[in-house]
Amino acid sequence: MRQFLVLLKYGLKTFNRSSGRMRRFPSFVLILAASIAFGLPIASIFFEMFKVLSSFPIEKYDLSSLLAMQWSLVSGFLFLVSFIPNLVSSFVRNEELQLLLALPIRRWAIVSYQMCLTLLLQPLPVVLYVFVLPAYALARGKHPLFGLMSAVLFTMMLLSLSVLLSCFVGLFLSRSTAKRLTVVSLIVTVVIFLMVSQFLPTYAKELLNSDVHTLTLSLKRFIHPLNIFGWPVKAIDEPLYVFFMLLFSFSLLIASVQVSEWLTFEQKSFAQPAKKISFSGGGLFWKDFKLLFRSEQSIFTLIYPVVFGILLAIVARSFVPALLMVTIISGTYVSYSAASLTKQELSCWPLPATFPVSELQLFLPKLFIPSFVYSVIFAGMLVFFYVWFSLPIFAYILLPFVFILYSFASTLGTFFYLKQPTKVELVNPSRVLNPTKILTIQGLILLISSISILPIFSEQFQSLLFMIFKSTSFVTSLICALPIVFCATMILLIKKLIKRIGYLFRRIE
Q: What is the C-alpha to C-alpha distance for residues 6 and 24, in angstroms, rounded to an integer?
């Protein structure tokens, strides 16, 4: 224990190093303040729901107990799914771990130290749970400290379980896979936070209108003694489950201490049979396609437009702003992805120049693979809007326009990147394009997509055009002609930019 406390003290001092005025406040104080700012709105929403549902009894419990247990299951599972991959990714040996392994420190102390740092970096899943149980206890007429104590015990139990599972998973899971899972789980956590704030009152009304027999059967499943996610809710009324959580946490802690000694803190790699290397155009397309999905940052840029678009459409109850924002955000990410693929190619230059391929075969996959992938995502969004909002079937004619727009964005992003004086920054790989170039691309995408998409779907925009031109036939022709004109213009610009990119590729030394 002393080794762990020394490591934690050392880690917090390192963690608190920051610049500017933030030096006055330790980082964990800022994290605590941010957690309270997130947790109090959630707690207030749940308290109102618990207060209403507590007046509808089901056997010795009530509807508020059912909602609390459902939330306990969702947030507990979400915590495990998000925390375990993040903890596993911290097990890969780096300079700090190399130093710690050279010291006379047990591996379980290092694992516990990494667990605490990971928890500081990822507090949102804990916040979504710790602030809800005190609200449940207060709505049931209990002191909120009982709910807080139960939530803290359950968090300790989940941490012990996470450490044990992370030690097992860390024996074979690669760091790259773990980081991808971390990004996906973080997005899911944020989505659940937003959905709770929007749809919890509606779900509470559905519970009130549900059949009593169905609710009783559902509650019996959740209060089963083997459901560990229901223990903290039951512990508020039955103190015996406090003892169960302590015993289970202690048992998991002992097991994790033993398993943690098996960890080697090495990057896991898996041998694959050798494949014949091809330098054909198809092989280069496949290579860049795999590179696009390799980093966790790319996974985030692929998922974020979908999540943001769906949430915006549901909140606004209209597909028009969501469709426009998805086009703008995806277009920005297309240019970023194309520039990133080009940057990875140049990081090993001049080796690619020795391949028996032309410059055109070398850089074309970097332009059109991101455009194709994000066009498929846009098509999926159209299908969702068609099912959810009865999107007009003629909206699918936007697919060629969007593909050309994304191709223009990727070509422009690659061109801007090659024009930069410094093309390879090993210190910060996320810095691909400078802010001025990004704003230029975003402004062009916003202008083209707004003028081309809004007149087609927005009745207010159509009415404004009718007021200006006073001719229905002219406005209809203008609405149909704008996307065609922009497509033709962008195709001409793409051809010119491709020639310029080929020239810049030939000039690389």
A: 23
Helix residue ranges, H only, 420-458: 435-457
User: Token pair for residue 292?
Assistant: 């696009």
3-state secondary structure of 61: strand
Helix (H, G, I), strand (E, B) or coil at 426: coil
Which of 503, 486, 299 is CA-nearest to residue 409? 486
State pLDDT tens for residues 38-64: 778 778 888 888 888 888 877 777 888
| pTM of this structure | 0.61
**Residue in the block written with tokens 């203008």:** 478
DSSP element (H, E) containing 62: strand 61-62
Q: Which two tokens stand for residue 471?
A: 């001719």
Tokens (6 digits) for 394: 């003629």
* Per-residue pLDDT reduced to its tens digit, 260-275: 777 666 555 544 554 5
Residues 182, 296: contact at Cβ < 8 Å? yes
The runs of H, that is alpha helices, within 131-239 are 132-139, 144-169, 175-208, 212-222, 231-235
Is the four-CA dihedral 303, 306, 312, 314 of positive or negative sign?
Answer: negative
Sign of the torsion formed by the C-alpha atoms of 376, 381, 383 and 386: negative
Hey, CA dihedral for 285, 287, 293, 296, is it positive or negative? negative
**Distance from C-alpha of 509 to C-alpha of 498, rounded to nearest angstrom:** 19
